[in-house]
Write a structure and sequence with these properties.
mainly alpha; 5 helices; about 65% helix; about 80 residues
Length: about 80
Amino acid sequence: MSRHPADAIESYASTAELTESERYDLLTAERRRLALDALAERATPIGLADLAAEVAARETGLDPTDEESVGRVKTSLH
């Protein structure tokens, strides 16, 4: 059962209703900022595993195939 990216966007439309304080709270975590940076550089949707690999590589400076690092990031982003 696959979801279309547009459906995902619509389901998260309520995030625009966050207060300014809530938005800043979300950005306090370095990992979230790295994830947003990685997403901002893309024109197409990215899967969680690929996003986790990109964030892990940015955090550690290591090969994004380091399964332990990617697994930790994937869990925290999910």
